[in-house]
Amino acid sequence: MASPPPDRKRPSRLSHRVLDAVGVAMLATGTVGLFVPYMPTTVFWIIAVVCFLKTRPHAVRPLLRTPIIGPAIIWFLRWRPFGGGRKKKRNGGKG
């Protein structure tokens, strides 16, 4: 088995199972939201994708290919609200 990249920490066994359980629960809740009026789907599926990105990246691909909700999930992942965007340059106030 290939080792993960050095800058990415592999989750422990307990956190792996917790993330899997939360991901499955959010995916199921979002699926229920497809059939129940006024219940959001995209929010729950975004949470599931974030959980699955840490534990099962191959499980994310089918969610991203969903025609209506997939583009919203892709937009959220590119938005990077958790500080994953570009870093500001600090050059001592020089132009």
UniProtKB/TrEMBL annotation:
GO terms for cellular component: plasma membrane. This is DUF454 domain-containing protein. Keywords: Membrane, Transmembrane, Transmembrane helix. The keyword Membrane applies. The chain crosses the membrane at residues 21-47. Pfam families: DUF454 (PF04304).
